[in-house]
Amino acid sequence: MKPSSTFRLAAVSFVAATLVLAVRGSASERPIDWDVVPEILARIQAPTFPDRVYPITEYGAVADGTTDNTVAIRRAIEVCAAAGGGRVLVTGGVFLTGPVHLESNVELHVAEGATLKFDPDPKKYMPVVLTRFEGTECMNFSPLIYAFEKENIAVTGKGTLDGSASTDNWWSLHRAKPGSTVNPRASYDRLIDMGDRGVPVHERVFGDGWVLRPNFLQPFRCRNVLIEDVTIVNSPMWVIHPVYSRNVTVRGVRVISHGPNNDGCNPDSSEDVLIENCLFDTGDDCIAVKSGKNADGRRVGIPSQNIVIRNCEMRDGHGGVVLGSEVSGGVRNVFAENCRMDSPNLDRALRLKTNSERGGLIENIFMRDVEVGRVAHSVLTLDLVYWRVYEGEFPPLVRNVRMERVTSASSPRALSIVGTPHSRVENVQVIDCTFRGVESADELAHTGDILLRNVRIEPVKR
Hints:
The chain has a single domain (6-122, 140-163, 217-459), classed as Pectate Lyase C-like, CATH 2.160.20. By secondary structure, it is mainly beta. The protein contains four helices and 37 strands. The two termini are 37 Å apart.
């Protein structure tokens, strides 16, 4: 069933005006505001490490780009952890490796001029580990850098992390190719079916023989995490993916990775997360906040919350700041400010996406003082029929969303807000914003409670 009662707002200029669209009643509770950000930031403290250094070359690593240094790096990390922690140092050249597993109190530092290059052979990422693939728990290939239930861990330095992914290896597993015996859809469908049926997680075994690509950097059930200054390229899939983690700082990172599903940073059922001073130039969403998918996400039931995004630059990507689409556990208290977004290949500035199969409560989402150049779809998108799912047993609720002092230079439309008669949108506000170069009317259907105040929409000059 497709949405009815659609109406469109013509792309005209609104100056110092207040406009209320499709009001269905006030929000059920008073929203929180920016005044809670200092409290969140006070809880986010980057870990510190003992002043001990363990160069990987002292454990047999060779910077020739061809020697497998997996064992040498593992040994350096083990010795560092056994001594009570410190810095494992990668410097001077290209070091080929398989998966790197961090231990508590260990900082992996990739110095300027050094590259940690990951072998793209899937067999290197066996045996399987506990992970979460697109919102469903399973046993799968190890992420390239992985930490399980660790505290005080870091990946830092001005060097490069190269996942080596390309259309010749990991990225080729995204879609079936003519004549290929690889069927990615079979892997995805098997995992979703297992999640929906409640198959025990330890029985959801994938890895070798299946095609669920690993994430690049995944702290899983970790506390006190720092990811700082590194450049990350060519990821198999999602790039920075904290899962069930707390007190996470992502600072000064450059993510340049244009493969399929190459989201830049995905806080997933995690809390107290700071993402600042980063560059995202990606093949999918730049920042996408997650909390699990469908039945498995509801089983886990852990929301993502208390996330601060500031002073970042977003170039290519499906969205600059995105909530979803795997949000069955809910998302709350996300604050994005002082960012710059601009690319003909960036689709949206702020996007919320879910549907009535995934459901989820998305609340207290704030964006302010963001400068948007060109976006390819719309500046603000609320998509509650993601993947054209119009019906389901878990209609989503979106409430307390505010976009403030956001400007854009060019877009097909300013707003795209599409819900269903059963989904709920409460207290969404667009205030003191200017959208220039708008090419067509806004897309609005079952919008719920939307307020526009002092909003200027200027049509493109033809």
